Amino acid sequence: MGPRSLMLGPVSIPTHDAFTLLGVLVAAAVLVVGARRQGRLDRQLVFIAAGGMVGGGIGARLATVIRYLAESDHPSWTGLLLDSGKTVVGGLAGAYVGVLVAKRVIGYREHTGDLFAPAVALGIAVGRVGCFLTEPPGTPSDLPWAVTYDGVPSHPSMLYEIAFLLLLFATLLWLRPRLTHYPGELFKVLLVGYGTFRFLVEFVRGNDVWLLGLTAPQWFLLAATPLMAAHFVRLSRARRQAPHRANQEVRHEPATA
After folding, report:
1. Are 219 and 202 in contact (CB under 8 A)?
2. Cα–Cα distance measured from residue 235 to residue 230, given in angstroms and rounded to the nearest whole number
3. Which of 57, 115, 146, 193 fits 153 for a cystine, CB–CB 3.0-4.6 Å?
């Protein structure tokens, strides 16, 4: 485990917060590069990105606040602000809603998921480095790559997540020019991919079981991920049926002189 704080000159910055901020900056850089290459970098996109950040911050906190209020015998404002924590799952959901709201406010109709998806994946990966350095790694393990925490070899669940997110980042970059017929869907690929992985890795993360052997993030994902997968199935069917419907309309169109 690394130091709880990093020194930036005379200023002490919590390690977790430092890597969270670094992750945001990395995500912003990837977004800017991608938007500039597509000629889409403008004030409207900056406003939408800001909406996503605000929504992500609220979602990350709100999900854990609900759990804190449900589990705490004596909730307090101090505990609500300091002990409730944050969650990536809630942050992703909040960012998605924040982007939708920002686009609705300014009347922006173009799809942005293709720009945001790789940036978000890499940003989360960087932020998870701070989690690995400051949080318990996972459940006990006797695997060769286990890390020792409080004298107990454990699954390095954060490293699993970082590795997956880097692979997902590369996959999203590879898919982006190949999904031009599905504008905006790349972000949903991110949500389904990360959601599925997060559900599985929760079994070795060591988080508190909430109900029926599953953690709170797993219950959220159990409901959300199948809905996203069903969206892709409907989209795929609609794409396959579109040419057939077009041909039918042409065949039934009355002849004209």
Report:
1. no
2. 9
3. 146
Distance (Å, whole) CA 140 – CA 28: 36
Decide if 171 is inside a domain.
Answer: yes
Angle 231-109-56 (CA atoms, 0-180°, nearest 5)? 65
Residue 239's pLDDT is 64
Query: Which pLDDT belongs to residue 64?
Result: 64
pLDDT at 256: 41
Domain range holding 146?
5-40+110-252
Per-position b or e across 7-17, b if 16+ CB within 10 A of its CB: eeeeeeeebbe
**Dihedral angle computed from the Cα positions of residues 36, 39, 42 and 48, in that order, rounded to the nearest 10 degrees:** -80
In a domain, 141, yes or no: yes
Q: pLDDT tens, 23-62?
A: 999 999 999 999 999 888 899 999 999 999 998 888 877 7
Residue 94 in any domain: the answer is no
Check residue 215 and report its DSSP letter: E
Give how many domains the chain has, as a whole number. 1
Residue-level pLDDT at 255 = 44
Q: Tokens for 74, please give them.
A: 């004596």
Q: What is the pTM of this model?
A: 0.79
What contacts 160, CB < 8 A, 6 or more positions away? 201, 204
Residue in the block written with tokens 């991608």: 34
From the list 79, 85, 30, the residue with the least C-alpha distance to 62 is: 85
Please list the ranges in the chain whose pLDDT falls under 70: 1-9, 63-86, 231-232, 235-236, 239-257
Query: What local confidence, expressed as pLDDT, does residue 84 receive?
Result: 44
